[in-house]
Amino acid sequence: xxxxxxPQQDLFGVDTQLTEGLRTRLRASWAHLFKAEILPILFRSExxxxxxxxxxxxxxxxxxxxxxxxxxxxxxxLTDQQALDAFGFDIRWRYALDAxxxxxxxxxxxxxxxxxxxxxxxxEMTLVRGIFERISKRAIxxxxxxxxxxxxxxxxxxxxxxxxxxLDLFANTISLFIKSLDKDRFSRIPKNIxxxxxxxxxxxxxxxxxxxxxxxxxxxxxxxxxxxxxxxxKEVASSEQYELLVRLFQEQCEIKNDALKGDSKKIKVKxxxxxxxxxxxxxxxxxxxxxxKGYSAHITETCNNPKKTEIITDxxxxxxxxxxxxxxxxxxxRLEAAGLKPDKLFADGGYPSVPSAxxxxxxxx
Length: 365
Known about the structure:
By secondary structure, the protein is an alpha+beta fold. The chain folds into three domains: 14-123, no CATH class; 145-159 and 286-364, no CATH class; 166-269, no CATH class. It has 15 helices and seven strands. The radius of gyration is 26 Å and the shape is globular. The relative contact order is 0.10.
């Protein structure tokens, strides 16, 4: 059940436990800046997240504080447990989130469940982007900066995945699908595939190079059999693991008639695949671009003075295979909607395209 957080501060906050000298240092730290400038924005945004909760049941943990915890976790590059430990044991985190001792515990399950519901019900993360924009505008105002001139560039964000070639990709995708099946469905799988799953998924590592092609085609046949076996099973066919298996086969394989065996089908593995092809069963959104495997992050920021702090005003992340060309109009649209549209946007030659340049010109006439 959704319950809005009461922003009224306790009379005796966590900082009252400290000596005067430590209180002075705390109020000069990042924690005080977060509490004074960012936490109020999170409090005012809480009701927008009420749709994540039902009308009955136990009241939710403070939405503002869990959002703040997520922001601090990403800023400090921490795992879930490290962030929760910092929240529970580090007085700076509790001060930043204005959490008393009784509010300083959040279970890992609650944190994960909050993110899961948010990703499911707001997959485009429009609410998170709205918070980002409000914080960005607040920072620009507080620092006396201007959004009239901004600069844009992209960088490769390398996916945290192990890459050991296509054999590894096939083995992982097939294994992930089989692992998702219950005992009854697992028993329907052909015996040779069950034996491979129980003994060999990692056994190919160190395989002589001249045996790779034969092993890869064997795994391609396994994938084809599994897809055919469960294609009419509604629950299995709608699962993410099955869809990944289908995607792998469509991108990496092709079916040809075997002339030596009449009309029988021959499964062949393609020599080359496009950059948008699946790179890992564990990170299906990652793709391959000219900079490498992972994601392209497009970052826009103010550019007032080389000696001043600059503030990020827009971001976009997508698979590395997608080109930078023609991205500028979408970025300008988002900046305009956020009230941060620049008079000048500096970008390298990879961004403009003739259609996008004409589109921007028409809108500015």
